[in-house]
Amino acid sequence: MKARDYRIPIIYIVLGVLWITLSDSFLKTMESYLTPEIARYTASLKGIFYVFATGFLLYFLLKREQKKLAEGNNKRMTEIIDKMNNLVIVSDIKGNITWVNHAFVKVTGYTMQEALGKTHGALLYGPKTDMEVVKTLSKAINNKEFFSGELVNYAKGGKEYWSQFNLSPMFNAKGGLEGYMSIENNIDDSKHKEDLIVQQHQKLKAVSWLNSHEIRKPVASIMALTELILEETDQEEQKELVKYLHQSTMDLDLIIHQINEEAAVK
């Protein structure tokens, strides 16, 4: 056990010994000032006084140790949260920021002093922040409920970043609301990948449209002209049909080049 774990019993024993050794002489001195009826009960009064005094002393010492233990646990918890890669923001019941961790300072550029007393909206929201999500978030806060969502936030220099956040109300032991904690992740990378997927999808749609609409016309012309050439016996007519066939193949080649360029651009 740690040394401080023995502190309370040691104090209790020392005071008990002092009381036992000194109380008799003290009470004998006091008996000269007391009536015989009251002096008769000094031994009992000594015990009663000892019980009350040590009871209050133990209560005071235990409360003090519990407070120190809670402060130590809170300090350790704060140190752990401060080392997390997630952005952590603690706010009071009015929404004013009361604490942020190191990851928040690193990502946003705001120091602890700059963030204290500000609301999320005043500090982090900007032109591209989705106000519909903010309205739903505000409703959850008013109802003291958990809420999860995604928002565009803004760092100190105005740089945008996507944040996936989980906001939870914090209650004390009696169930009273003490504030809110928001744990956030910077999801810029995943959003960038989503944009690439969307772009790829648009590319495929464009290529599919060109394939289904633009290519169909010259291919149909080539097929029709080929049949006419095979059936035509007049050489002059065949030469004219071959000219049209050549033009259709040139149109088809041009469309294929357009598809390749469109896919490359997108």
Task: Explain this structure.
Residues 145-199 form the PAC domain. The chain crosses the membrane at residues 7-26, 38-62. Its EC number is 2.7.13.3. This is histidine kinase. This protein has ten helices and five strands. The protein has three domains: 3-81; 84-186, PAS domain (Beta-Lactamase), CATH 3.30.450.20; 192-265, Orthogonal Bundle (Helix Hairpins), CATH 1.10.287. Strand 1 and strand 2 form a beta hairpin. The chain has a five-stranded antiparallel β-sheet with strand order 2-1-5-4-3, sandwiched between helices. Helices cover 65% and strands 15% of the residues. It is rod-shaped and about 155 Å long.
Q: Largest sheet at a glance? A: 5 strands, antiparallel
Number of helices: 10
- Label the overall shape: rod-shaped
Unreliable segments (pLDDT under 50, ≥5 consecutive)?
Answer: none
Strand content: 5-15%
Helicity level: 55-70%
Q: At the fourth CATH level, what is the homologous superfamily of the largest domain?
A: PAS domain
CATH architecture of the largest domain: 2-Layer Sandwich
CATH topology descriptor of the largest domain = Beta-Lactamase
* Strands, total number: 5
The class by helix and strand makeup works out as alpha+beta
Order of helices and strands: HHHEEHHHHEEEHHH
The separation of the N and C termini measures 69 Å
Give the quaternary arrangement of the chains: single chain
Using only CA atoms, what is the Rg? 42 Å
Catalytic activity: ATP + protein L-histidine = ADP + protein N-phospho-L-histidine
Organism: Pedobacter steynii
Protein name: histidine kinase
Keywords: Chromophore, Flavoprotein, FMN, Membrane, Transmembrane, Transmembrane helix
